[in-house]
What does this fold into?
Amino acid sequence: MNNLNSKDILGTRNLSIEEINLIFDTAKKFKEVLSRPIKKVPSLRHLTVANIFFENSTRTKLSFELAQKRLSADVINFSSSVSSVKKGESLLDTINNILVMKVDMIVMRHPNPGAPHFVANNINIPVINAGDGTNEHPTQALLDSFSIIEKLGSIKNKKIAIIGDISHSRVAISNIHLLKKLGAQIMLCGPTTLMPKYIKDMGVSVGNNVREALEWCDVANILRIQLERQNEKYFPSIREYSLYYGINKKLLDSIKKDVIIMHPGPINRGVEISSDVADSNKSIILDQVENGVAVRMAIMYLLSFHRSS
Amino acid sequence: MTNISKLFDSKRLEITIDRLCQQIIENHKNVENFILVGLQPRGVYFLERIKSKLEKNLSKEVNTGYLDTTFYRDDFRSNDVPTARETRITDSVDGKDVVIVDDVLFTGRTVRSAMEGIMNFGRPKKIELLVLIDRYYSREIPIEPTYCGIKLNTITSERVEVNLTEQGFEEDSIIIKNKSNE
It folds into this structure.
């Protein structure tokens, strides 16, 4: 495998096993770079990357920006809340204006599913999807799988439970596509109201009982309730959600096996996960954040070779 | 048609490695203070030969590391993605004498990248370069080896290969391949 097939990373659904392995192999090398006294390499010193965020982000944006700086790229940041988008500029106009400033790569987050695909089809430089509405968040899924492999050695035949608000989660969709390709067994667990109707067609099992999911799985990836995307009430109260679907130490201790706890962040402590679980030695939440930089460095490094073609 | 000529066999290689090790010992009284860094991919095989010979001669353990220069290369405009390999330098190189080890010195660009890479692990007191073969008319950057097995006057179309048993070859050999026009 020499390089990624496409100039863009828009989702995990179109990635081949060879491409996934290439990203992981490269990320491993960058993880070593990040352990050096000087954590910067000059690989992207000839490129300018634009981070275009039409939706709020802390972790992803910081992680991308740090990855770009570790690769010596020049970085420009754009947030829709402080831009001319508020004055009525269209998406393509905004992008074209950024492009004439000789930008070489775009990292983009947008509340509408498909927005990065639209941009990628209209420009000839690499576009990385940093989350498009409820569709995909490929770099998060890649760093999740990278973290599982680091911990367990492999994903094949491992049992992964994704627990929480599946309906509004792009992390869940990207994870399902990727984990299936890597040979995992997947169970989704959450209130029926937060479970997409046809999700079983993706080849996953669906449950409503958190205890059963935890007893079954090797890894539990716990998702946040995305109140900002919910236009109506899907469950009576946060308190009730926490009571039935929240994961706390008492529940975890009563399970007779070791379960690895993951969370893509941001965490709502005391809602979907309690502090004593999030901060326990079973949690690899902070490893996920650390690996995020290495995985994003790998993706941008590999895509940089698509620039001139 | 490709013409192949054999330059070294395993006996001659051993004599040369012995000489290179003696030169290192002569220049470095304090083994604790120096580290041999082999360049990926082929320099690491040669490094292991040097290491075991040095350790035999000195009856002491010698510090070594591997360095991959992929992320420091200057040919970033090509469309082929170079494969990155393992870098393993566990100790700080601060204040140490670093000897870069590679099999063939050609344009000098890899060694330039390697020096940049090593500086990311600290500030060495001194950096030296040990190569088995120096293709001295092919240099594009003013870099010269400190220790050299053999100097070769070759042209660009020729390819010099160091084939060691550790790489899966039946016997040690150094060969020159010349692709002549038919």
